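Final report, results section. Input specification for complex C-07:
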Amino acid sequence: MNRKFSDNLILLLALVGIILLMGGLNGAQFFQARNIQTMAFQLPELGILSLAMMVTMLTAGINLSIIASANLTSIIIALILSRVMGSDMSEGGSVGIVVLAIGAGLLVSVIIGLFNGFLVASLDVSPILATLGTMILLKGVSIVLTKGYVISGFPPLIRFIGNGSVLGIPMPMIIFIISAAVMALVLTRTSLGVNIYMLGSNATACHFSGIENRKVLLKTYLISGVYAGIAAIIMMSRFNSAKADYGESYLLMTVLAAVLGGTSAAGGFGKVSGLVIALVILQVVSNGLNLMRVNNFLTIAIWGIILILVMVANYLSKKYQQKRWTA
Amino acid sequence: MRKLFSRYETFVFIAIVMLGAIITSVNPNFLTLENFLDLFKSYSFVGILAIGVLFVLVSGGIDISFTATATVAMYVMAVIVNRYGGNMFTAFLIASVVGIILGMFNAIIIHYFKIHSIITTIATLNIYYGLLIVFSGGKWIYCLPTWFREFAQVRVFTLTNSMGGEYGLSIITVIWLALLALAWVILRYTVIGRGVYALGGNPVSAQRVGFNILRLQLFVYGFMGWLAGVAGVVLTLLVQSVAPNSIVGKELDVLAAVVLGGASLLGGVGTLWGTLLGVILVATMNNGMTLMRIPAFWYDVVIGLIIVISVSASAYQHKKKKNKMIDIEVD
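Structure output:
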């Protein structure tokens, strides 16, 4: 059996087990259409942020600045909207203005991505340090722009992106499915994708195979930045507000989701499909615990425990496989 | 002389002096003994944590969980001394034991399961912090024993300023300086200290020359945990209360100070002298912004810029040096 496939099989089995467990603990309430729809609305923002994290982890990097970048993007969009539409922007608002504002926001996230890419690729700054610096810097810019206040109340069109549905499927879920599919295509069907995996497994070998590591890294952080920007639009729409320090707890969750989904922190391994299954597992666990009225902080501790258990399981299975090889 | 100028620490020192000159020209209150002694007191918490972070970075690892460790340690300490009484020694002892246990737990996971230290400590940060809030209910502790409150006021010497107010060298600063000295001796003159550098430089070689990697890692993360425990007590002395949510989330600030001081995330590189300068740089900047009446919300922009510029500059220099070395090899 293909090894990659068997990895996802373990995850799928875990998913089925956890759905049964949470279903059993919560009864019919868990399987109600409303509850499932709630989950479908909650998963995408973390999901897209996790994709942004995962793509950098594939190159043996990390992007600590995704949340700060997303917040700055939504603040830029919010500021443009409030400038153009005045203080009361929750009514009306033409398609043109909204599209323009979102376009400007995404442009900001592109610039942030390129800046991170420049630091990591051209200056050889270690990804943790580079993105730690941009994280603090971006958060600072957000605080200066908003003076620490919340900007809230957006036009219906913006609110629709995070809260509307098309044919019963939540809008954020549609955006997430498209984003995940595009990421999967880029990673598996383009030369950039192959290069990202190669660079992550062995940067030197990659360099000597005639690949320009610099360009690959630059593009990786660009993709990461754009995905953070897309997540920003969903986040601002769902909260109906923008602030400098929203969603900071997501940072751990994105690493957790990526690692749980089989992405290696050392680079070179990880698939979008694994990440998606991991996200569903996380969502089911968090939703189930929430229905059981478990303390939020206990949930945070449980995330930590799950993260360690998954890493231990990965280690043991790798060791077992190696033993079988040598035997 | 040339060697002095090629050292990274020299640049940090020059940056501090220049920053100090700018601040003094705007507000002469900066350049007073009282302000310096005050800064050294209030930054002893960050300074103590920075020593531990340096050890972990030099060993080639990273620790994010120390803020949670410090929080747990100070909470347990406060609960126990409130219930059973004690003295300053037992307070430090309790916090130290808690810190060392939590730190060594990190080391055990990192060593036995070969999990990257950043992932391990992100996980344990959330486990320690989450469980603490669950068990404590997130309640603050304001009530502390009198002997504990009074210890924070102890000064080694006391001076009087022109306004008649008293100031001096706080016992808290002395604790920080003593720990700095201890860490300096360990890193420089003991086998285990040299082992930490060896482990960070090249783990395989370190093992081959006979270092016990498990013991080194237990030491490094245990030492970080111990310092986190001590720092927890120091923070409690400084603010005279225990708030479970006050420091978690600040771990990257401490990391930034250590990195500004020249420690490399790749391991094997970093000095206590540099770390001390890194902490002083951050303290000066923070203090300077207050003295120059710059609104607080500019703080993150300034510190973010400084981190980006300094890590870029040192990475770029490293790259240039590396390119040169390759040239020589080819010739």
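Residues 43-251 of chain B form one domain. DSSP finds 15 helices and two strands in chain B. This concludes the modelling results for the funded period.
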